[in-house]
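Good day; I would like, with your permission, to put a structural problem before you. What I wish to show you is a protein chain and, alongside it, a tokenised description of its three-dimensional fold. Thank you for your consideration; the sequence and its tokens are set out here:
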Amino acid sequence: MVTGLSVFPDHLEVTVTGAPVLNVLCREIGMMESEIMQVGGPK
């Protein structure tokens, strides 16, 4: 079960019950870095 998700300009950190934190690069899930920067970040 996913228990947390942290959004950073260049990656996401996914916390899953019973597992270490997963670092996922934006390009690994089909997002460009500029797309994630628009969520509460610099414009």
